[in-house]
Amino acid sequence: MAGRDSHEEERMRDRPDFQHLVDRHYASLYRFALSLTRSESDAGDLVQETFLTWAAKGHQLREVARVKAWLFTTLHRSFLQLQRHATRFPHLELAEVDTELPACDPGLVGRLDARAAVELLAKVDAPFQAPVALFYLEDYSYREIGAVLDIPLGTVKSRIARGLAQLKQLVRGTQSASDRTQKEAR
Question: 159: pLDDT confidence band, cut at 50, 70 and 90?
């Protein structure tokens, strides 16, 4: 047991100090991150994330001599993960996609609860239900929907557009019925 404790102490003594690690590798990690992201703020975020990961998991590294490779590998994996996320959930300006948004009364949308929305979706023609549900309720990408439903990408886009058009009509019908009910109540 005593030999085991001394081995652990020796390993910890060889482990680089966190501040020393940052001082030694920050600049090269930042340059690498900048070459990947082409953005100073994104590069800084990646480097910070890398050192945060080191703080949480660096103790698992068995060969201290491989610290630099571990840091660069971790940074690259974080970058790839961010790229996959950005591909799956692209940032779009509202003005760019306003034609895809349904045109309906905001008051109705505020009164329309999740159950009612799912009930309306159930009234959409069967070929369009699954693509609309996967896209809007499950946050699947077009490619993922195509793979799940085994249909081409263009078909996915077409079915979502047609499903949304039907859903708009159903929401408008709900709005008209709601308006009639309110007028009758007066």
Answer: very high
Instruction: Give CA separation, 117 vs 34, 84, 157, in Å.
Output: 44, 30, 21
Q: What is the rounded CA–CA span in Å between residue 81 and residue 68?
A: 20
What CA–CA distance (Å, rounded) separates 46 from 52? Answer: 10
The answer to whether the predicted template modeling score (pTM) of the entire model surpasses 0.90 is: no
For tokens 């050192």, the residue is: 51
- If 0-12 CB within 10 Å is exposed, 13-18 middle and 19+ buried, where does residue 154 land? exposed
- 170, with CB counted inside 10 A (0-12, 13-18, 19+), is middle
Predicted pLDDT at 107: 58
- What CA–CA distance (Å, rounded) separates 33 from 50? 10
Task: Count CB-CB contacts under 10 A for residue 156.
Answer: 24
What does the pLDDT read at residue 34? 93
Residue 7 has pLDDT above 90, yes or no: no
Structure tokens at 162: 């047609």
Cα-Cα end-to-end distance for the chain: 86
pLDDT at 126: 87
Structural domains in the chain? Answer: 2-88 (1.10.1740.10), 94-185 (1.10.10.10)
Chain-centre distance for alpha carbon 7:
43
Residue with tokens 């979502």: 160
